[in-house]
Amino acid sequence: MPENQYTFDNPVDRYPAISPDEEQVPEPGLESDLSPRADLGEDSYVGTGRLTGRKAIVTGGDSGIGAAAAIAFAREGADVAIVYLPEEEEDAQRVAGLIRDAGRTAVTIPGDLKERAFSDEIVKRTLDELGGIDILVNNAGKQIAAESLTDIPDDQFDHTMKTNVYAMFWLTRAALPHLPAGATIINTTSIQAYQPGEQLVDYATTKAAINAFTKALAQQLAPKGIRVNAVAPGPIWTPLQVSKGQPAEAIPEFGQQTPLGRPGQPAELAPAYVFLASPESSYVIGETLSVTGGMPTP
Ligand code: NAD
Ligand code: MG
């Protein structure tokens, strides 16, 4: 394990190889469902003031990639509102504690992003409790593997679209009137947008949509000084994967197909979100930053 994100080492074995058991838990998964546990940067991410005074919303900020981003944002000086499902209160409270340990304000907003009205509530609570919004990370996601298209019921298709695409649209639209010049929007897409897996037809479709949404909106908002970008993770060790995101039999070899030969840890995604959130990326607009362990993207 690296001491911090700047530790110079060999990325091949920066983290120990993992060979988890075949396992599958109900959604949404919790961090405690992961064995071995994932690294969210709790003991390693060091901030250098890159987001001092900023106010961020991170959906899915309770666990996985969103939690790693939320922790990093706080250590870089941002106040952070995290959005998550009510069943994830335990993970959310842990991340909120880490945000507060960094000396920043944490707002916890449980609810269901599949409901349009919840996006308005997220914006209202963030404005009331943080006094503004200048970073919006649309990161919550739903992924359920299905062997055949005929195994995808209407509600799975609908919930995957609502969570991954509609919620991004609703929350971005609700936040937009409040975003000042200099604000940034970061959407979590996936390697699945480019290399869609045969068992993830619905999910991969949403991830391609997220890329198109990002690139279209980026052009629209750039003249207003609001930058829109995306991050495309490769296989990352998170609760999403063990809560039906993969078939159980795929879990033991998860991530071994990458050129690095291992899955990524959420902590390895955090610097990408910090970079895109920070003014240091001022000329980076409509970009998808791939963090895939070497899996090629266009
Ligand atoms: P995760 O399970 O830790 O995070 C997903 C989060 O989405 C959950 O914690 C939950 O809070 C939130 N969420 C889901 N449905 C919701 C709903 N209806 N209302 C409110 N919140 C809801 O897993 P993760 O892998 O960190 O996922 C984060 C993002 O990364 C997702 O968009 C996912 O598609 C994307 N991604 C993950 C991987 C990977 O390999 N883990 C790869 C590429 C992209
Ligand atoms: Mg979670």
Write structural notes for this entry.
This is SDR family oxidoreductase. There is one protein chain. The protein has 298 residues and is of the alpha/beta class. The chain has a single domain (48-291), classed as NAD(P)-binding Rossmann-like Domain (Rossmann fold). It is 33% helix and 12% strand. It has helices at residues 64-75, 89-101, 116-130, 154-175, 201-221, 239-245, 270-277; strands at residues 55-59, 79-84, 106-110, 135-138, 184-188, 227-233, 288-291. It has a seven-stranded parallel sheet with strand order 3-2-1-4-5-6-7, sandwiched between helices. Helix 4 (154-175) links the parallel strand 4 (135-138) and strand 5. The longest helix is centred in the middle third of the chain and has 22 residues, at 154-175. The protein starts with 54 loop residues before the first strand and ends in a 7-residue tail after the last strand. The mean pLDDT is 98. The chain binds nicotinamide-adenine-dinucleotide and magnesium ion (MG). Magnesium ion (MG) binds next to loops.
Short description:
Residues 1-43 are annotated as: Disordered. The chain is α/β, with parallel strands linked by helices.
Q: What low-confidence regions span 5 or more consecutive residues with pLDDT below 50?
A: none
Distinct small molecules bound, one entry per kind: nicotinamide-adenine-dinucleotide, magnesium ion
Would you tell me which CATH topology applies? Answer: Rossmann fold
Q: What is the CATH class?
A: Alpha Beta
Percentage of residues assigned to helices: 25-40%
Biggest β-sheet description: 7 strands, parallel
- What is the helix tally? 7
Structural category is alpha/beta
**How many distinct folded domains?**
1
Total beta strands: 7
In CATH, the homologous superfamily goes by the name NAD(P)-binding Rossmann-like Domain
Order of helices and strands: EHEHEHEHEHEHHE
Name the average pLDDT. 98
**What topology, given as strand order, has the largest sheet?**
3-2-1-4-5-6-7
Beta fraction: 5-15%
Amino-to-carboxy terminus distance: 30 Å
Named CATH architecture:
3-Layer(aba) Sandwich
Cα-based radius of gyration, to the nearest Å: 18 Å
